[in-house]
UniProtKB/TrEMBL annotation:
It is an enzyme of class 3 (hydrolase). GO terms for molecular function: peptidase activity. This is Uncharacterized protease yhbU. Pfam families: DUF3656, Peptidase_U32. The gene is yhbU_1. PANTHER family: 23S RRNA 5-HYDROXYCYTIDINE C2501 SYNTHASE, PEPTIDASE U32 FAMILY. Keywords: Hydrolase, Protease. It comes from the Bacteria. Its EC number is 3.4.-.-. Residues 325-439 form the Peptidase U32 collagenase domain. One of its GO terms (biological process) is proteolysis.
């Protein structure tokens, strides 16, 4: 369960009650960002450190492991060598993002949303300023890029790096799925299930962390559900094509070209068959013009006439031979609406006993075994072969369960006649016992004890970027040696220009203006500040070339500074309710 937002003091007691309720409900572990949780009076629930904790160094990873975190989600920006170094110096399980949307800033280090809108990304309410179009100017005021989505990243895709990530120590693979639909979840999880299964089958040193095999009834394709293009980000060092500058939307796959646009239709030539309900689009002046195909009619070899549900106003601007993309494959999506996969666990079944009592034993592939009996008076069968076949089929009939019969042994001295109803009862009750036994066999995770001697936090001064938003978080850091602690950005104490976003993505590098990459006469260039402009919002870009980072500098808007602090009781009260608390004026 995730509780990975920073908490205001007014939220600490409700959070404590919530965590207790979750533990008593049976939740296995809690993913948290706010270190104040560590100081609360909560049950010994297993704790995982969120990616919002900004875990980029061996020192920080080791500290979090030593204070009681069993699992840590590393920053997306790390490369294989950095991941391996953390794995080798900590006993926490390593978790890493392998797919989905990328935050351009280090997670937990982005305050641009709160600065501009009052919506805090550290509290799960990001307004996604990174997906807006911006104009980039250099220090001389010259336009480098105009109205491009310069902070919008392509989507993370680590398909090609799974084996290397395993070798680097990653044991939990995280897929970003916020706001994603059912088709996306089915498709992407199926894709990585198949990729991991293939790696495990190929290597004798690996095993699944859970029992069962999954069968898929469709062919997964990462290209057929939402993405902004694909990148493996920094896992294999810095690359120049990690941005989705043209559009933050899903364009899909190219399927052909536009031949002609009519009043209520368009003629196209395609490499793949089209069908009613497909989602199609063309790019016109850096904008996606999309539509659903209401009706498609084949007009020749690889040619179709398409009538949209609603003709987009700008579609007439499409020129002959302009690329046509499909971002919704109707037939493929329909397949996902049905049962698309099935996960089954292998069991070995033995039927023993004799005429007065039958004994059914089921042992699943992870070693859990149960035995159940059925008393009765069972006569020897006159048709032995048929009776044995009925017994074998009856105990192996597991179609509506999570199991399948791998081996079936009828270990009876002879053949018995057992009514189907009784045999079904014996099998059903044995399966129920196996379900309970498998649950009981899983040990519940517990909080790791703090190491002895207690660890010391690797820094003595924490800026607002440490996101300390309540007195319990402050107590936590003081307990482990931090001397000076600034309040989180959400506390509204930072009123001037500060880095509202720190990112490994560098626009100088993206536009070949990086001094490190320069050659010849431009090698003497300095990484001078630049400007990022959206409407009347002007942000300053500063470049820290030693760690290869870009700082987006801005200030909190005045009206946001005057707003109640996020999470405070005042912030949760509506204006009407607040007015009711004011004393009435005399004569009113």
């Amino acid at each position: 369960m995730t509780l990975n937002t920073i908490l205001h003091d007014d939220e600490l007691e409700p959070a404590q009650r919530l965590i207790t309720d979750l533990y008593e409900t049976g939740v296995d572990a809690l993913i948290v960002q706010d270190m104040g949780v560590m100081q609360l009076d909560i049950p010994p629930i297993e704790l995982h450190a969120s990616t919002q904790c900004d875990i980029r160094s061996v020192e920080k990873a080791k500290f979090l492991s030593d204070v009681g975190f069993s699992q840590i989600v590393l920053a997306r920006e790390l490369d294989l060598q950095q991941i391996k170094a953390i794995y080798e110096h900590t006993d926490a399980t390593i978790e890493f993002f392998i797919h989905g949307a990328l935050c351009v800033a280090y997670s937990g280090q982005c305050n641009i949303s709160h600065a501009q809108t009052g919506r805090s990304a550290n509290r799960g309410d990001c307004s996604q300023a990174c997906r807006l179009p911006y104009t980039l100017k250099d220090d001389q005021g010259r336009v480098v890029a105009y109205e491009k989505h310069l902070l919008s990243m392509k989507d993370n895709d680590q398909t090609a790096n799974l084996a290397q990530l395993i070798d680097a120590g990653v044991r939990s693979f995280k897929i970003e799925g916020r706001y994603k639909d059912m088709s996306y979840v089915k498709n992407i999880t199926a894709h990585y299930r198949q990729m991991l299964d293939a790696i495990i089958e190929d290597r004798g040193d690996l095993a699944r962390s859970s029992a069962g095999r999954t069968e898929h009834f469709f062919v997964p394709s990462t290209d057929k559900t939402f993405h902004r293009g694909s990148t493996d980000y920094f896992v294999n060092a810095r690359k120049g094509d990690i941005g989705a500058f043209d559009s933050p939307k899903f364009i899909g796959l190219p399927v052909g070209e536009v031949l002609k646009v009519g009043k209520d239709h368009l003629d196209v030539e395609v490499s793949e068959a089209l069908t009613n309900g497909d989602g199609l689009n063309v790019m016109i002046k850096r904008e996606i013009v999309g539509f659903r195909a209401n009706t498609v009619e084949k007009t020749g070899e690889n040619r179709y006439r398409v009538w949209p549900n609603e003709m987009p106003a700008d579609l007439y601007k499409a020129r002959p031979h302009q690329a046509l993309n499909r971002n919704l494959d109707h037939n493929w999506q329909q397949a996902l609406q049905k049962t698309s996969s099935e996960r089954r666990i292998a069991v070995d079944i033995t039927l023993s006993g004799w005429q007065e009592q039958l004994v059914l034993t089921m042992t699943c592939e992870d070693g859990v075994s149960v035995t159940h009996t059925l008393d009765g008076e069972f006569a020897e069968a006159t048709q032995a072969d048929k009776a044995l076949a009925n017994l074998r089929d009856g105990v192996a009939k597991l179609g509506q369960t999570i199991y399948f019969a791998r081996n079936v042994e009828i270990a009876l001295p002879g053949a018995l006649f057992v009514p189907n109803g009784l045999l079904n009862q014996l099998r059903r009750e044995t399966v129920e016992r196996l379900d309970r036994a498998r649950l009981d066999a899983v040990p519940r995770g517990q909080r790791k004890p703090v190491s002895v001697p207690p660890p010391v936090y690797p820094e003595t001064h924490l800026s607002f970027l440490a996101n300390v938003y309540n007195h319990k978080a402050r107590e936590f850091y003081q307990r482990y040696g931090v001397k000076l602690i600034d309040a989180a950005y959400e506390a509204h104490e930072e009123k001037g220009d500060v880095p509202v976003m720190i990112t490994k993505h560098c626009l100088r590098f993206a536009f070949n203006l990086c001094p490190k990459q320069a050659k010849g006469s431009i090698k003497s260039w300095k990484a001078t500040p630049m400007q990022l402009i959206h409407g009347d919002e002007v942000l300053t870009l500063k470049f820290d070339c030693r760690p290869c980072e870009m700082h987006v500098v801005g200030k909190m808007k005045n009206h946001i500074l005057k707003m109640p602090l996020p999470g405070s009781i005042v912030a949760s009260v509506s204006p009407d309710e607040l007015l009711k608390t004011l004393p009435k004026r005399k004569g009113a």
